[in-house]
Amino acid sequence: MANVIGGFATSHVPSIGGAIAKGLQRTPYWSPFFNAFDPVHEWLAREKPDVAVVIYNDHGLSHFLDKMPTFAVGAAEEYRNADEGWGIPVLPPFPGHAALSWHLIESLVADEFDITTCQEHLVDHAFALPLKLMYPDAGANWPVRTVPITINSVQHPLPSALRCWKLGQAIGRALDSWPGAEKIVVVGTGGLSHQLDGTRAGFINKAFDQLCLDKIVSDPEALTRYSNKELIEQAGSQGVELMCWIAMRGALTGRVSKVSSAYHVPVSNTGGAVLLLQNEPLPQALAAE
Ligand code: DHB
Ligand code: FE
Question: How far, in Å, is the centroid of ligand 1 from the Cα of 129?
Fold first, then answer.
């Protein structure tokens, strides 16, 4: 039985890639963000996940406005990163896990999530940077196989927070029924509050971000009661990337506890946040094995 050992979430601001390329991680501007990864690296070195299921929003590299899936699942043996115009160095390709992807797709469709399947899929900064943050020394040899799952947070109408929570729960059920022995970490990327355009460009809501960081651990369903309009009011028009955190949390079906979290503003124009959760099987799940 598949073993979802944890959930991890981080902001995915493109300038993080620039800071890594220039070696600025321990400078005063960047260190409050990058230091948050020290406990994450310790946990990854100890727990050694085999697979990362990465829930994120594509920003136009793979899905553009002319054809925008609400939810899509990658089903390839490899995912290439490419130049998406932010000036971030392109990272080496990421290994996929097509068999697990197809298991997820079968299970999600049976669960009435009519997702788009992507046998070719370029991964943008929202997928690549979190993996680079998790594994800074990986080079071309990523230590995890990956499954990318995208949520449309770019072109309205967007799925609701509640729908993304239910998607996450369906992903959790699918992973729990995977017969393989891989250790799996579910990753959610994006947010927290930010707005890149319009009259509120630069908007950050620290109080709301801290509420989200608290609720996502202990009472995630509280976050599913916000409408998209309310989320945009509270978190900014791009702050809806919180959806990916909510879906990640929904996929953790065991006993969830916080390993570490950090919050720092600003990271570029964003409330920068990092969260690591441990997921332990419930006693009844162990008994059923
Ligand atoms: C920024 C944040 C994002 O999530 C993104 O995709 C692009 C830019 C920013 O804060 O600059
Ligand atoms: Fe983004």
Answer: 12
Mutate to test the pocket of ligand 1, among 152, 195, 269 (most ligand atoms within 8 A of CB): 269
Q: How far apart are CA 189 and CA 244, in angstroms?
A: 6
198: left (phi over 0), alpha (psi -120 to 50) or beta: left
Fold of 3-182+190-283: Protocatechuate 4,5-dioxygenase; Chain B (3.40.830)
What backbone torsions phi and psi does residue 52 show, to the nearest 5 degrees?
A: -120, 120
Give the ligand with the smallest distance to the CA of 197: 1
pTM: predicted TM-score of the whole model, two decimal places: 0.97
Tell me if 248 CB under 6 Å of ligand 1.
Answer: no
pLDDT in tens, 233-276: 999 999 999 999 999 999 999 999 999 999 999 999 999 999 99
Per domain, the residue ranges of the chain are 3-182+190-283
Q: Tens digit of pLDDT for each residue in 152-173?
A: 999 999 999 999 999 999 999 9
Catalytic, out of 59, 63, 121, 194: 194
